[in-house]
Design brief:
This protein is α/β, with parallel strands linked by helices. The protein has one domain: HUPs (Rossmann fold). The chain is built from nine helices and eight strands. The protein starts with a helix and ends in an 18-residue tail after the last helix.
């Protein structure tokens, strides 16, 4: 015979919530403190259980000639997140080969972890581009969107676009304020080429790795080609 306490225990077990995992994707060429601050902010604001960093493989939206190989970018990301217990790393996009598509990544994660809810973190301006991504309906179906908004950005315009996407794709989208974090991978690479300091722009272990291995010394790419949250 079950007591009321036993029944209550079974009920609580049945109502156990799914794990909530944030996805931080990008070229990470290199990963920098802006990525880490954004991930930590999303983690605390939305009571996430984990932030999963997924360095991109071969992005169909970027010129590959300026991007370091996947193994090197993966290693720098590993160095950056090693001291944070709720940050983790996946090589799935690098391992997959071929072009990287967000929809495929989310489908794979959903199949492998059906009891996990995913929160896809991106720069807010990407909201204006997502409809041109491969199978955007799958992205909105498989993940809650957390759009990072820099201080000074026109919130009204972003809210209007988020509303359009919600109506069109039945999406769940949240705007996440991140203050005035003005760090980009392109600027870091430029600083390296100009032999300027990148201390405090990247994790110290990444700075040491870049300097030790003479990374980014010979890359030349116009800033106009790059994404702020690459």
């Amino acid at each position: 015979m079950n007591t009321g306490k036993d029944q209550e225990s079974h009920s609580l077990e049945g109502e156990k919530r799914h794990r909530r995992v944030g996805i931080m994707g990008g070229t990470f060429n290199p990963v920098h403190m802006g990525h880490l601050l954004l991930a930590e902010n999303a983690y605390s604001m939305f009571s996430l259980d984990e932030i999963l960093f997924i360095p991109s493989g071969c992005s169909y939206m970027k010129d590959q000639t300026e991007i370091l190989d996947g193994a090197t970018r993966l290693h720098m990301t590993r160095l950056s997140i090693a001291d944070n217990p709720h940050f983790s790393l996946s090589s799935m996009e690098i391992d997959r080969g071929g072009y990287t598509y967000t929809c495929q990544t989310l489908e794979q994660l959903g199949e492998e972890n059906p009891e996990t809810d995913y929160y896809f973190i991106l720069g807010a301006d990407s909201l204006f581009q997502m409809e041109s991504w491969k199978d955007p309906e799958i992205i909105f179906q498989k993940a809650v969107i957390l759009a990072a908004v820099r201080e000074g950005r026109d919130i009204k315009e972003l809210l209007e676009k988020a509303g359009q996407l919600k109506d069109k794709f039945k999406a769940e989208i949240h705007l996440v304020p991140i203050g005035n974090i003005d760090i980009s991978s392109s600027d870091i690479r430029r600083r390296v080429r100009e032999e300027r300091s990148i201390r405090y722009l990247v994790h110290e272990s990444v700075r040491e790795f870049i300097e030790k291995n003479n990374l980014y010394r010979d890359l030349t790419v116009p800033a106009s080609q790059e994404n702020r949250h690459e």
